[in-house]
Design a protein that fits this description.
The protein is mostly helical. It has a domain of about 90 residues. It is built from seven helices and no strands.
């Protein structure tokens, strides 16, 4: 999509507003890096995911992602055999706790509706 179309559609204003709702720096980064898709299949999939996410939020409320910190540098240090300090360990712990909360949020009772487009993502989480 060309820049003129994005400006006309106020795309950057929408992305800026969306970024304000993200609760972590990583979430804000993901929001800033969003780009419109031109693939009909991708658009259909993301619209379905959005619909399913709205349904879940209406049924269960919003999941909490607070306390998540970027641990990419810590993971790089671990790759080279370094050890982590207490602050880094606490950041890893906070991330794993958030993953556990997200996995619990994604669980569905047998009596609930059938699987939706988000179930695979929730099942892939391993705290």
């Amino acid at each position: 999509m060309n820049q003129k179309s994005l400006r006309t559609l106020e795309y950057y204003k929408i992305i800026s507003q969306l970024t304000e709702y993200a609760s972590s720096q990583l979430g804000k980064e993901l929001c800033r890096n969003l780009v419109p898709s031109t693939s009909l299949a991708e658009i259909s999939q993301t619209l379905q995911e959005t619909t399913d996410a709205v349904t879940r939020v209406r049924q269960k409320g919003s999941p909490s992602f607070g306390g998540i910190r970027d641990i990419r540098d810590s993971l790089k240090r671990l790759d080279v055999g370094s050890s982590l300090g207490i602050v880094e360990l606490l950041a890893v712990s906070a991330l794993l706790t958030a993953a556990a909360r997200a996995k619990n949020y994604g669980r569905r009772e047998e009596s609930e509706l059938p699987d939706d487009s988000l179930d695979g993502m929730f099942r892939a989480l391993e705290p």
